[in-house]
């Protein structure tokens, strides 16, 4: 079940038509390797979309899964974070587990009020965060003292999607 859950999570995150579906495996791996420290990526399962199917580029041994999303942003997540991401993508209740994600190449931006927004609007508090890691899951609810502003400074730690069941801690690393 865990493998199919991770697969469906990644399928939802990578949406058919990924920018990297056309690139070579070597080019894709070069992109994905920017997501996390080498010790994580080198031993992780690396997947990508190939049409509407998920293709494994590298079989891993450390429980991490890495990929580039539909706009080419590389990320790596542990199994708990993959379950959390699956819940977010399917609008389900997140698991009662703490997960960790790397996005050391940063992101292309997201709404800080609407977890499913795909573009910036005048009212959705769009925010871009550079190199960062994320802590997801119930632990974030007990981590007091982090800003829950709708327009936080993305160069400092903050809670993304505050007040929703998907709130998570964003920790810039550069």
Overview of the molecule:
Helix content is 21%, strand content 24%. With 174 residues, it is an alpha+beta fold. It has one domain. It has an eight-stranded mixed beta sheet with strand order 2-1-3-4-5-8-10-9, with helices on both faces. A two-stranded antiparallel ribbon has the order 6-7. Helix 1 crosses helix 4.
The domain tally reads: 1
Poorly predicted parts: 1-12, 14-20
Work out the number of β strands.
10
User: First CA to last CA: what distance?
Assistant: 36 Å
User: How big is the Rg?
Assistant: 15 Å
Largest sheet: 8 strands, mixed
Structural descriptors:
8-stranded mixed beta sheet; disordered N terminus; 4 helices; alpha+beta; two-stranded antiparallel ribbon; 174 residues
